Amino acid sequence: MAGLPEFDVAGQVVIVTGAGRGIGRALALDLAASSATVVAVSRTRSDLDALQAEIEEAGGEAVTVVADLATTDGARTLVEKAVAACGRIDGLVNNVGWDVRRDAVDYTEDEVDRILSVNLKAAYWTSVYAAKRMLEQGTGGAIVNVASQAGILGSHGRAPYSAAKAGLLNLTRSLATEWGRAGIRVNALAPGVTLTDPVRMSLAARPHFAAEVRERILLGRPADPREVGLPILFLLSPAAAMITGQTLVVDGGWTAAWSVSKADGSIV
After folding, report:
1. Catalytic pick from 107, 124, 129, 161?
2. Which domains does the chain have, with CATH numbers?
3. Is the pTM of this model over 0.85?
4. Active-site residue, 161 included
């Protein structure tokens, strides 16, 4: 039985930032498996080479770009290289992110600037340069900004990161209002705790955090990176043609309730 064409992303050219590891890598693999051309972006060449080899071994197509998107030049050069290699841009996933945990009073100015640049400024300029190309093409497009549940809830020890991700959610709404008439949809996805390599290390090193995760997530476990990537693929597809300016929270239910009883898991 043939699949539903509304979920088909075959032939699309999709830029995925932060594609070397975690959610970005899982998404890049699934996009390639769905016959999209992936422009995979990372600061680490070895990660991109491994990803490209896996995609091409499976019969997919990928272009890789090494870029530091915390700079405006990095974002502009990325889009130029994507267009030079593929001729067009149909989708963009702003997935790159970076964080360091400290009390708010202990951050250095350089750390705060870096967190805001990687998590917010990078998405702004990459979206702008990609949208300019989409507007020239006249065929619309889709942008998905990967935020965080930390942009919805306050998060101890993550003040600049939470602020950047909250800003990313409103940037999403603002850009959707500007580009909607041109058929460019802009949405956000806010993951919860996801089993990337750093999170696995944190869970192993901090048993109290692992216990809190199991307690707070209504479905009882963290997400696998693919469980976050697949909803992004949906937002890129024609099946989401009437969705723009929205935030899809993929957190297993963490933000659905303000607290959960330790005794029986019920909402209190």
Report:
1. 161
2. 8-192+225-249 (3.40.50.720)
3. yes
4. yes
